């Protein structure tokens, strides 16, 4: 019998690409430069906002809603860029330059706004309580998605994928398979999405956005199995073939 999933306030969804270029991933590093520049400044702002939120929660037990929405937007933007880029290679659709949710884009992130937060937990959750997750994610992602990232003193999180690590190895394997077959193996896709989802949940927790401790669980696949959608579901992709999601006639890169 399948173990029931408990709900979690951070929802991370993605829809696999029904039509994928065989070779676009070879130049995505160049195409992503504008996003990397913008995200650098957004993450500086994320850290500043998190410091302000830290003191606001400590005094009022509330995360100011405009600050919360901004930081969720940074995580959302980062997730779209990572999904397009080398943390997943999940889509060939160029990420939009916006903090807002984009219904038509295949990567989605939502965080339920907490009406009240613990004044005591805010002192320890972003470093001490999250430490076991840091250790597990460093094993799963190695020098890539997590160990190559930094959790700052205020709970800020840089979600860029670094060099090395399990997730990077899996994405490289998927890219090579995609280059020669036009297919992204479904099992690799599901596992890579699970690692990204775990990291983003921990990012929201260390970013002081929720008091609910992230589950020690690799929830694989594009649709988040641990939460209820806060809005419209992501678009339903074309039915994948047995080998993975594949275009009827894959476009040449």
Mind describing the biggest β-sheet?
Answer: 2 strands, antiparallel
Order of helices and strands: EHHHEHHHEHE
Average residue-wise pLDDT: 83
Number of contiguous helices = 7
Instruction: Tell me the overall shape.
Output: globular
In total, the number of domains comes to 1
Strand content: 5-15%
Number of E strands: 4
Give the helix level as a range of percent: 40-55%
What is the first-to-last residue Cα distance?
44 Å
Main sheet: strand order: 1-2
| Integer-rounded radius of gyration | 18 Å
> What structural category do the secondary elements indicate?
mainly alpha
Give the low-pLDDT segments.
143-164, 230-234, 236-253
Question: What's the structural blueprint in terms of helices and strands?
Answer:
Blueprint lengths: L9 E5 L13 H4 L1 H28 L4 H20 L22 E5 L13 H5 L1 H11 L24 H16 L1 E3 H21 L37 E3 L7
Antiparallel strand pairs: 1-2, 3-4
Keywords:
253 residues; 4 strands; disordered C terminus; mainly alpha; 7 helices; single chain
Q: How does this structure look, described?
A:
It is globular and about 55 Å long. With 253 residues, the chain is mostly helical. Helix 5 (131-141) packs antiparallel against helix 7 and helix 6 packs antiparallel against helix 7 (186-206). 42% of the residues lie in helices and 6% in strands. Strands 1-2 form a two-stranded antiparallel ribbon. It has a two-stranded antiparallel ribbon with strand order 3-4. 40% of the residues are buried. It has one domain (10-234).
């Amino acid at each position: 019998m399948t173990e029931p999933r408990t709900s979690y306030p951070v929802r991370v969804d993605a829809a696999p690409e029904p039509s994928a270029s065989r070779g676009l991933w070879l130049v995505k590093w160049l195409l992503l430069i504008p996003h990397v520049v913008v995200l650098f400044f957004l993450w500086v702002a994320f850290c500043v906002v998190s410091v302000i939120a830290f003191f606001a929660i400590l005094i009022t037990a509330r995360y100011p809603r405009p600050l919360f929405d901004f930081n969720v937007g940074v995580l959302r933007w980062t997730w779209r860029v990572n999904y397009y880029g080398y943390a997943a290679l999940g889509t060939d659709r160029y990420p939009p330059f916006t903090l807002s949710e984009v219904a038509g884009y295949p990567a989605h992130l939502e965080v339920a706004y907490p009406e009240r937060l613990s004044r005591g937990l805010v002192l320890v959750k972003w470093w001490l309580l999250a430490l076991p997750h840091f250790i597990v994610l460093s094993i799963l992602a190695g020098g890539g998605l997590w160990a190559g990232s930094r959790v700052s003193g205020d709970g800020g999180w840089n979600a860029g994928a670094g060099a090395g690590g399990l997730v990077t190895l899996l994405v490289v394997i998927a890219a090579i398979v995609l280059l020669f077959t036009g297919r992204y193996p479904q099992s690799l896709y599901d596992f890579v999405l699970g690692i990204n989802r775990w990291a983003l949940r921990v990012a929201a927790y260390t970013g002081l956005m929720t008091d609910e401790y992230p589950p020690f669980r690799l929830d694989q696949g594009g649709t988040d199995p641990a939460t209820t959608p806060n809005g419209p579901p992501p678009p339903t992709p074309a039915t994948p073939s047995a080998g993975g999601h594949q275009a009827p006639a894959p476009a040449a890169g």
